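pipeline: protein-struct stage 2 | run 1193 | Fe2OG dioxygenase domain-containing protein
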Amino acid sequence: MLKEIDLRRPGGREHLRGALRDGFFLVRNTVPETLLDEAYAFLHAFFALRPEEKKACHVPGSNGQAGYTPPLIEHAEKGTVPDWKELFHWGAPLPAHHPLRVRFPARYPDPYFPDHLVPGIGSALRELHTRMLHFQHDVVRTLADALGAHPDYFTDMLEDGPVVNRATWYPPMAQAPSDRHIWAVEHQDFDLITALPRATAAGLEVLVDGEWLAVDAPPGHAVVNVGMVLDRLTNGLARAAVHRVVARPGQSEGRLSIVQFCHPAPWTTLTPLRVPGAQDSPQRFATLTADELFQRTMYRIRRLDAQRVGTSGR
Ligand SMILES: O=C(O)CCC(=O)C(=O)O
Ligand SMILES: [Fe+2]
């Protein structure tokens, strides 16, 4: 059973630290259900377009962080075949001369919204970005307190950080190229935290004590997932949970999900926190910047644009 956090009455430090140790927990979502339904309707319309129309929405130079990514591109570190899913990413723009954008241009692509194909999609997805980010900031304020940090400790490193919203369409498994393919191979997220509001069908699973546990966010809740950044910052007290997405036996329909990844500003140095009362465990991680960790992970999962040059069919 996942622990539940109500941000209005978050419970004591031990409850919150327990949720962080699990790495996956439920939080009452403050994003309106109607906005989520509206976004899913627009995204269904987008993914139902013809492959050529969708491919024209690819954004080169964004390392797949904006616009459309076709099926069988994203590949988890542990995957022997690519995931059976297609993606649409968006974020919010930074001003052209913002020093973060000048220094890390590939992390700040201008968002691309296919309003000419699906009229109205842009404003719904922009609104969803804002509401979900507000929710995530409330979550990290509560977590900071449980870790003995100032309530603004995490929101400060998230200021102007690249927030990546991802819609994933998992096509029906009957159409998969082989029975070795699954929707999303097990992986850890590499941001600070990720918010996963309810999806349109079952499929999300988290690894707990060596067993896969099915996770479905009930209406009005989001799953929150600890990413590698929070794992490193807490010297492993918070656990970047291993998760995957698989169709259940007999599940014939596809699945659409929306998640939001919160990354610290790339110039943040990920110095481990001194967590009061935490056991004195040996320091586990070297100190990297948020961008160094991001680049290293993207390289390992073969998602840097430079690694795709000359790869046919991609
Ligand atoms: O689709 C989902 O529910 C989870 C997706 C996910 O884990 C990811 O994109 O990193
Ligand atoms: Fe994930």
